[in-house]
Amino acid sequence: MSKINILSFEVANLIAAGEVVDRPASAIKEMIENSIDAGAKHITVEIQNGGITFMRISDDGCGMDAQDLPLAIKRHATSKIKNAEDLDGICTLGFRGEALAAISAVSNVRIISKPHDESVGAELVVSCGEVVDLSERGCSNGTTIIVEDLFANVPARRKFLKRDVTETTAVCANVEKIALSHPEIAFRLITDGQIKLETAGDGKLMSAIYAVFGRDFANKLIEVDGEYDGISVKGYVGRSDNVKSNRNYENFYINKRFIKSRTASAAIEQAFTSYMPSEKFPVCVLFISLNPARVDVNVHPAKLEVKFSNEKPVFEAVYYAVKQALEKNTTRPEMNVPSTSGLRMSDAFIPIEREQSLKARQISIDTPRQGPQSVRLPTEPTSPEIEIRQAPDQEKKSQAFQKITAEQYIRQHLCTSPEAQEFFAKMDREKGIDTGKVDNKPIENTVTEAVVTITPDTVIEDKVVPASTPRTVEIPQPEPTPKRSYKIVGEVFNSYIIVELDEKMLIIDKHAAHERIIFEQLKKNMYSEEVASQLLMLPIEVMLMTDEVAAIEEYRAEIESVGFVFTSSKNIISVSALPVGIEQETVFDMFAIFADRIKDGTGNIHVTKNIIFEKALYQASCKAAIKAGREYPEGHQKWIVDKLMELPDITFCPHGRPVAMEISKKNIDRQFERT
């Protein structure tokens, strides 16, 4: 009796569905990619219960006619490729023809679509892989796909899904990454009736970054624009004061496809050496463009990983583009001192729902008459007056009006929790106000309308005052700081030099500044010298694996070009000469790093050698720099400040600490209530 079974088409479909669609987030990703390939300019994603019970993706793309709808849910049915040669240069996000087949095999699906040149559309109804109905239907141009009851016929897989909130988070993350990859498309994400993401679709990457990550993140970015060996690298990386404790904020796109790449991650992290602490990771949104024939995207079920024909030029393109951007950056971190006046209060007692793209916060309040309402407060509000329009008094038959400050309105209506009241009591004590005389009782009359004049836009939103149309906020890029006249105000704690510069005050860490100045000079001298080698009396033997020795031999010319002389055998590298300045005990680690980065495509010989050399200079520059807490002649202060004015790109010490912090005059005036 034969032991080999030929699986039925239905079982094969279920197995394929498990590879392509393992949770709602992956289904959403596949369907959005189809919308992008269809040329959509507006894409709306709506989910309920994390997408498990309901998903809807609508677009205004090219659409499908009634004849194509039944074909779209068949396995290996696609409009992206026709023959094997097309796989050598894939330019679309989808190409396998498996997504809709996999999704329809494990859920109930409705596909409503209409091409732009047709007068009427069509609707296809599918239940767990079986076509239930195909009929004409009136609809707008484009395609809408509704997916309900995911894994309804595969309970074993459904039980492995996470909680609704976890699945929602995964969907949001996928939509955000895709929205970043196509800033020319307007995305809207709705989860359980609430808008979680909305992009302008104006084609500007900074607008998409602002909508996804917020203002503070966007303000701390540096533009990257470079090209190497036919590979273009564009986008943004975080400044040295915008780093994270993991790689979750490293976003790489190959030909506008989001990927995870060890090569690109290694390149940006090595470029940030001496610009951030060793335990931190940079953030980025980088677009890597290259000939599709040089990259294979068909190596991972979810297409999250790619294989380059040669990793070395990709690494070097990312490394040198990011390195150049960091070296040109002259923006110093700004010291923002939080205010305790007006509306500047702790977020601990303001239930923030989300930050809108129009510089506003949306919080929930209860009005006596209309119940919970939505109110937007500006991110950086001033202290305007609020006009409270109250319900007409039934006896007097007249409408009363009362004007109060924004702070009073928030005290009386928005922040009534014990934490909020304690905050206001502390603020009153600091102002010398007798808290026992402060009247925080709510206004007795019913509030039906509230109007705040804070910006030219309306920022209060409820059933009476409609919300203003969302708009994209442009984030201006910082201009390079030219050399200007300055005044040294003095030094505090024998550590920090206070400098007045135009409309700003600089607080300079004299040790960190001097350390970076010395480091840059040592690095300049190191790179300006010709390669010199020192012979060893006895060769140093480095034991490596066979494949590591092969990698070293493959790049022998590059390794010898930096000053090494060596021979190799099966598992041994015998080094007879090494570059001047390299300690003998570091040779073992250097060759191990060389071999590892060559094999993984995460570095090259010259970059690795330079990084190791630079790290050797950290300690030398730190020891040579003047020390914090010690007194030095005033000439030292002036020399350091002069150097910083001449070299505005010196913003962080080699260990990643800031060299100077800025405080604007406007910020100081605000603290003293002079605005």
Give a nutshell description of this structure:
The protein is an alpha+beta fold and 675 residues long. The protein is built from 19 helices and 30 strands.
Explained architecture:
By secondary structure, this protein is α+β, with helices and mostly antiparallel strands. It is 32% helix and 26% strand. The protein has an eight-stranded mixed β-sheet with strand order 5-4-3-6-2-1-7-8, with helices on one face. A five-stranded mixed β-sheet has the order 9-10-15-12-13, with helices on both faces. Strand 24 (487-492) and strand 25 (496-501) form a beta hairpin. Helix 9 runs parallel beside helix 10. The longest helix is centred in the C-terminal third of the chain and has 20 residues, at 605-624. The radius of gyration is 31 Å and the shape is globular. The model is unreliable at 340-406 and 436-481 (pLDDT under 50).
Q: How does the overall form come out from the CA principal axes?
A: globular
**Biggest sheet architecture:** 8 strands, mixed
Could you tell me the mean pLDDT? 77
In the predicted model, the low-confidence regions spanning at least 5 consecutive residues are 340-406, 436-481
Structure annotation, total helices: 19
Task: Kindly name the structural category.
Answer: alpha+beta
Number of strands: 30
Task: Jot down its keywords.
single chain; about 675 residues; alpha+beta; eight-stranded mixed sheet; five-stranded mixed sheet; 30 strands
